Each structure stands twice: as C-alpha cells, then as structure tokens.
Amino acid sequence: MYVDLGKYKIVKDPVHGYIRIYEHELSIIDVFTYQRLRKIKQLSVADFVYPGATHTRFSHSLGVAHVIEALVRDVMRKYRVGRGELERYIVMMRLLAILHDIGHGPYSHSFEEFVLFSRGVTHEDMGAKIVLQEQQIASAIERIASEYGYKLSDVATALKCENRDCWPFKESIYDAGSEKALFYMLKGAYSADIIDYLLRDSYYTGARYGGNIDWQRISYYLGIRGDDVVIDYRALDAVELLMLARVYMFSTVYYHKTVRAANRFLGNIMYIIQDRKIIDFDSAIKDVSEYIKLNDESLLYNPAVFSLEEVRDFLSRKIPYKVIAEHRISLSNTEKAVELVEDIDKNKGTIEKILEEKARDRGIEIEKNKHFFIDTPKLSLNPMLGSEDILIMFEGGQITRRSIFDFTWFNIPRFAVLIRLYIRRELRDKATILRDIFNETLNLKEIKSQ
C-alpha cells in the first residue's frame, strides 16, 4: 500500500507548532515544481510596509493541510465513518490543500492580477494544468488518488472548481450528507485556506488581527448536512471573529495604501516585461515546463529584467505613486454597499476617462495607468460575499440558514466602499487640482449617464 498515515515527518511551524508531512506526500513536496513555492511570497509586496511579511506559499500550503486534516477528523468523528473512509478523506483533502496554490506565479496575486487575468486564466487553472502535465507531480498524485478509486483528473477538477456543483467528489458520507460538503472545508467562508492565511499573515506582519482566531472551536463544532457544512451555534462567536479579522486584515494589510501603490508599480514592470518580450508570459502559460521556472527571484533578477531602471527603483523601494484622495463610503444597508462597489469597479474606466478630459480642460495632460490610476479594493467586504449562506445548528438540531449580511461583524467597520486616486510623484504640484477633479467626477449619476 502506497499510503500509510503511520509514517510521517514532523516540521516545526511558527503558527501551528509541529505539523505532520506524511511519507507519501514527500513524493510531491520534494520535487522542483513544488519547491518553487518557497520562492513565491505569500503576500507579494506587503513586505514593503510590513518587513516580516516574507513568508511563502510553501509554508502556507503546509499549514492549510494541517488545518484541513483537523477539520476532517472533527467532522467525521460525529458520523459513522470507519477508519478506512476517514483515511481516504484525510489523504484526499490534505492532497488538495497541499496543491491548492501550486499554480501561483511570481509575486502570487500580483502576477494573477496583471498577467493571468488578462488572459482569462487564474492560478487555480494553472494549478490544474501543472497537476495534469508536469510528469513527476502527476505520477505522484495518480499513485495516491488511485489508492481510493480516484483519478488524476478528479484532483485537477477540484483544484479549479469554483463551487460545489463542479466538485468531483459526490458520494454519500453515510447518513450525514454528501462529499460535496467537503468543498467548503477547502474553499468556503471559514475554510482551512482562510484560517491558515489569517493566522499566518497576522503572525508575519505583526498586525495580529487574525492571531486570536479560535479555529479549533470552529473545527470541533463543524458538521455536515446534505451538501453543506453546518456550524453549531456554540461556535458562532469564533466564526464571527474570523470574519471580522478578515475584514481588518484586508483594510489594514492587504489593501494598505502603500502596498497597493507598490503592487501597481510591480504590475507596470510586468507589462514592460511582456511588451518587450523579455519573458514570454504567453508561452509560459501554455507550457507548464516554462511556467514552473517562474518565481519572485527569476522574474526580477533575470539579467535582462534587472537592467531595467524601473526594476532598480522597485528593489530600492522607490515607489512612483502617491495616493492623493481616498473615499471611504459608509452605508447602513450593506447589500447596497456591495452593489455600489460593483458599480464603481464596473465604471472605473469611465471615471478615468472623465478625469483625463477634465484635467485636459484645465491644462493638465495625464493618461491613465501612465500618470495615475484609480484603485477600488473591495475584498474587505468579502468572505465569499453573497456567494453562500452560513448554516447554523441550534439546540435540538434545528438548522437556520443565515446570510453573512446578518452577522454583527458586518456592521462594525466604519466604511463599506473604498476608492483611491494615485498619481505619479512628479505630478504632486498638481495634486490639489487633480483631487478636486476626482471629487467632482465621483458623482455616480454623472458616471452612469456617460
């Protein structure tokens, strides 16, 4: 038998303490394709502001595997799940957790934002391609999956799956429900992925918002009903604290104004690299053997890239953008706030066009992306916002479905929508005029009439 949960190594992790790596998982982890995650930072450019935020996708992925095993064990102990079935769920869910970020490119979500998205691809899509096409990884996964009657393609499908309807594991879990519910343990509103990155990012940035999440309580009181996961009402406080931590981590860390400016500067460099074909991103996306050569170091320390003045400025932390206007819009009706976020994001191009025209009327020649950009971060409103309800089991077994809009955490933040205007620093003498134009332009009625 290829899989034996009695054989494992332990790794000392600063977030979880000692965590296990099972012997069969080493056939995936100890190959170049996977080890490259050691050279891809979890938080991209956040270390520009938080110097400790240099942790990687590698350590995060191991952490997610640790958390998801605990979730699986706590859930399955509540039902008539035998030892063999429990092992199957542990092995497969840990496998998906270990692999869930294998498709990330250099600087994680920055590469996704500026390179992958424009090509209609996500890091999950790339992860599925790597799993299917990179021979060492594919062979190792196939050996593990075949132990339980699964195929390599099932693993690839699960990695890029966006909702439970495409989740490839659908068998019954005795009288509890179906394997579709396992989707939420990996990708739901309080999934192993979210739990680990909040704990890990809080630790390494020092922000601490997620440092006190009582995820073990969530795990202990987690259950399955039908195709859903359900949380016992006794763990609601822990769930709400997790959601609130995520809101503040986004507003304070992930969307810090300087982090976003550095992210845009890095995006500009990626555009230069692809426009000049210094690195052929299109070929790399098509050919995973080329894609897996990309990481944070190989992107910027490639001699042809490193010679760029912009790269030298970036590595010297000379960020050319400065935020000159910021609007935090607080709305009592959170659902309307979400609609407004979507409206602003959809109309950002129109806002930028109006800004260019009004600036030109006042004698200032500016061009979007080159001289200014508008940032509309909205993830602080989300975990899985609007895409799912949370099922709560109360005393006596009664289950209530609640929208995340109903949770108290949503009313605590003082703002619902954030929109910023950044300009290049050489235009700082025009900041007052551009700020006034921007404020005039942020009239949604005017935007919608264009």
Strand order of the largest sheet: 5-6-9-10
The strand count comes to 11
**Overall geometric form:** globular
- Average pLDDT score: 90
Pick out the low-confidence regions.
379-387, 444-450
Overall SS class: alpha+beta
Could you give a short account of the major beta sheet?
4 strands, mixed
In angstroms, what is the radius of gyration?
Answer: 23 Å
Provide keyphrases for this structure.
450 residues, alpha+beta, 4-stranded mixed sheet, 11 strands, disordered C terminus
Architecture overview:
Helices cover 49% and strands 12% of the residues. It has 22 helices and eleven strands. It is globular. It is of the alpha+beta class. Strands 5-6-9-10 form a four-stranded mixed beta sheet.
